[in-house]
Amino acid sequence: MAYTVPETHQPCKGDRKELPNGLRELSTLSEVLVSRNVNVCEVFLCCTPRQASFSIYTTDTDSQDEILSIKESGMCLFRECIGAARNLNLRMNNCDDENVATFYRTMTCSRGCCFSPGPPSMAVNSPPHIRLGTIEERVTCCNPIFDVLPHKENEPTLTYTTNCCYMKTCNWCTDIEIQVYDPATDNCVAKIIKNSKSDSAELFNLKNDFLVEFLTDLDIIKKLMVLGACLLVDFNNFEHDRRFCC
Question: How far is C-alpha 54 from the chain's CA centre?
Answer without folding.
Answer: 10
